[in-house]
Amino acid sequence: MFLAGGHAYKLKKAVRFSYLDYSTPELRRVACDKELVLNCRTAPDLYLRVLPVCRTASGGLTLGGDGTIVDWLLVMLRFDASGQFDRLARHGQLTTHMMLQLADRIADFHQSLPEEDEHGGPAAIAEIIVENDGNLARFGTGLFEPSAISRLTMRSLEEASRHEKLLHQRQRSGHVRRGHGDLHLGNIALWRGAPMLFDAIEFSERLACVDILYDLSFLLMDLLERSQRDLASVVFNRYFDRMPDEAEGAALLPLFLSIHASIRAHVQATIAGGATEAAARLEARRRATSYFTLAEDLLQASPPRLLAIGGVSGTGKSTLAAHLAPHVGQPLGARILRSDVIRKRLHGVAPEDRLPESAYTPDQTARVYDALCREADQLLAAGCTVIADATFLAPSERAAIQAVADRRQVPFARILLDAPDAVLASRLSARTGDASDATPAVLKSQRSDAATPSDWASFAADIPASTLVFRTLRYLGRLGWLVGLPAAQPPVEASVV
């Protein structure tokens, strides 16, 4: 990569590996053209054109012109490298808002892609696992115990075999697409105030034509390895809010995450082997072992659970759910099913778009609870812990979510939030940019219908959000639900309504 003025010039090395061939100028031109086309899908302002490098009659080199073509360059606009998400993560500068924008960007990208059912499926996943085994053994000498590599490979193949039918089903039903292929934090940057995906894989259809959840899982794994579980939970939940047909596929995420961690483990081991400076070598070795340990841990089974959070509008159900999610499920935390978001989805609008009163009739509300319970059932079957976030004012609504827990025979906890009406009305009046359309008038109507269930744990919600989160975590801790320690401060940026 050459940087000059406002542009970057990307020159491909004349190399040949089992998975790519850049050995001739013509092959490099084809690769540059393909890289330009693929990356214009997500970064059209950044990727500009392909130019020949020509030798002039005097023997010098020039971009373009009439001389003999000796190579090719991909021309890009330069951007501020400090805005790359791996650097932002290193300095603790990633925010919930960025993650919400990023999840929306990835969901929009994946939805725009054509199906590629000739790729993917269980055979492709098994092939990657076997390749990882060879690369870990080849490049991890002195870093990874051979017995540990074998154990990881066997567990990965067993997991792939267990999900063979689901992998086939997703391949046939359009979930395999020509995605990004290398969607880690280093290939995401802030561009004009929003996340931009760049540097997609151009050299291998096999590596880039994958299940869209496999494409997403590289980013999720990267966040987990960097101890950003709260942000991984945000991306996971927002993406699934935007992609409702992915609930059953959640069963594949532990395997997909582990495979990506294995890949990064042997990549870092390779970097360590080629590093000339001691500090760089030690850091690469540390990252390699960190990724390898994560790859093992991600395959550890975690029993699913169901948590229902109820209460009238304005009590802070969604804020509490967002704070609890990273701590009550593995590996990405709980999947939050919010009735307000489901209602918007059923009406074909974005979560923050407002709906007319006709969307809030009893029949429409019954549709919302039916959809919520169906999705909760799917997710629990897939091994995910679920947080159901809804008012649950009617006995029939509470009975429906109880029936899901009974059918799946999972631990079930129920939390009811409440606060004085004056507090709640003030919160609702101040609320903006939220999936809920509730107003003080809606609150008044809810009060007339609400009955306090005796079998739900009640928590006062007219306290600081951090205090409510602490008390609820302590309660869940007594139930043996927590899988990680909460942050000292609330990990998710959200309002207290």
Key words describing this protein structure:
alpha/beta; Aminoglycoside 3'-phosphotransferase, Chain: A, domain 2; Rossmann fold; five-stranded antiparallel β-sheet; 16 strands; globular; disordered C terminus
Write a structural description.
The structure is a single chain. By secondary structure, the protein is an alpha/beta fold. It has 3 domains: 2-78; 85-297, Aminoglycoside 3'-phosphotransferase, Chain: A, domain 2 (Alpha-Beta Complex), CATH 3.90.1200.10; 306-478, P-loop containing nucleotide triphosphate hydrolases (Rossmann fold), CATH 3.40.50. Helices cover 48% and strands 14% of the residues. The protein is built from 18 helices and 16 strands. It has helices spanning 25-39, 85-90, 96-111, 121-139, 146-162, 164-172, 205-208, 212-225, 229-242, 253-274, 278-297, 317-324, 339-346, 362-381, 395-408, 421-430, 440-449, 465-478, and strands spanning 2-4, 7-11, 16-17, 20-21, 47-55, 61-63, 68-77, 176-178, 188-191, 194-197, 209-211, 306-310, 335-338, 386-389, 412-418, 457-460. The strands form 5 sheets. The protein has a 5-stranded antiparallel β-sheet, with helices on one face. Strand 3 and strand 4 form a beta hairpin. Helix 8 (212-225) packs across helix 10. The longest helix has 22 residues, at 253-274. The two termini are 48 Å apart. Residues 485-497 have low confidence and may be disordered.
